[in-house]
Amino acid sequence: VPYTSLPYYSLPKLPYWPIECFVVIFMACVGATLEVTWHDDGFQYLICKPGTARAGHFNGDHVNNWQHVQMYVCFAVSGVVAIVGWLGYLPAGTEKAFLSLAFAGETVLMGLHEKEEPLDKFLHQMLTLSMLGCCVACAGEALLPHSYLISCGRAAVTVLQGLLFIITAHIMFQYHTAWDLSDGDSAALQYSKVVLAQTMTSILSGYIMLHIAVEAWAAACYTRGGKGSAQPGTVQNSVGMHETTTPVFRSQANEL
Q1: What is the spatial distance between Cα 74 and Cα 25, in angstroms, rounded to a whole number?
Q2: Per-residue pLDDT for 235 more than 90?
Q3: pLDDT score of 11
Q4: Distance between CA atoms of residues 222 and 224, nearest Å
Q5: Do 76 and 105 contact (CB within 8 A), yes or no?
């Protein structure tokens, strides 16, 4: 059985319910709500209130929050589409296509953020590229659902995006003297590129080690099950008078 990318993964005790889809919708709604409500100055109105100097105009201080809300909406819609697909009303691959569109919406909104400060601008550019990577990888999975490498790439760039958000928050919203560019020193900007490279290298190294560990574990389980000996990463299947070799992890990924 060839590896097949799934639009969602179920919990062991609830194998027939797309729990992941409900979690995506719920968290997107929570994120969108907090984006416009959890502030010291109260609700972030998109339009300036009556009685203010700019009554009726867009509130420039709050537009950024509403851009983030739209990002959450994109993923909520993707979760709804995945549930509809689970019900059997959509062609195969539609769920991943809409997830790709969700990342595309996120990419456009992040890419159009106008930033002037060099370090802030660089971090937003890296976030935009990671989002674009997620968009392309999900589109690839929709077109080539049996490609194990594309699925690994999608998982890797998703982790990269999450880590970049954490790094950006640490640099931009927690003051550290080392990251201060007010004196015109560009050393922090240059080192931020090292941080990016370190993050990417750590993710790739982690995935390689995880893959090797799972391959070894799968081969050991196959051997203990009385199927005979197998080299790490392979399973020998006898079919008539012929013997074939199939990758363990890729052929049994959904079962594992």
Answers
A1: 10
A2: no
A3: 80
A4: 6
A5: no
What is the pLDDT, as a whole number, of residue 44?
Answer: 94
Q: Can you tell me whether residue 180 is helix, strand or coil?
A: coil
Return d(Cα 149, Cα 139) in angstroms, integer: 13
Measured distance CA(137)–CA(155) in Å, rounded: 9
State how far the Cα of 103 lies from the Cα of 154, in Å rounded to an integer: 11
Evaluate if residue 253 carries a pLDDT over 60: no
Given a cut of 50, whether residue 249 has pLDDT beyond it is no
pLDDT digits (tens, 9 = 90+) for 157-188: 999 999 999 999 999 888 888 898 887 888 99
Amino acid, res. 146: H
DSSP 83-138: HHHHTT-S-TTHHHHHHHHHHHHHHHHHHT----SHHHHHHHHHHHHHHHHHHHHH
Q: How many CB atoms lie within 10 A of CB 8?
A: 20
Contacts of 181 (CB under 8 A, 6+ apart): 117, 118, 119, 188, 189
**C-alpha to C-alpha distance for 107 and 129, rounded to whole angstroms:** 8
- Tokens 């008078």 correspond to 241
Contact predicate 119/188, CB 8 Å:
yes
pLDDT, averaged across the chain: 86
Residues forming beta bridges with residue 47, ordered by sequence position: 58
Greatest alpha-carbon pair distance for the chain in Å reads: 86
Which two tokens mark 89? 């009303």
SS3 label, residue 47: strand
User: What's the pLDDT at 239?
Assistant: 33
Give all strands (DSSP E) within the chain, no chain letters. Answer: 234-239, 242-247
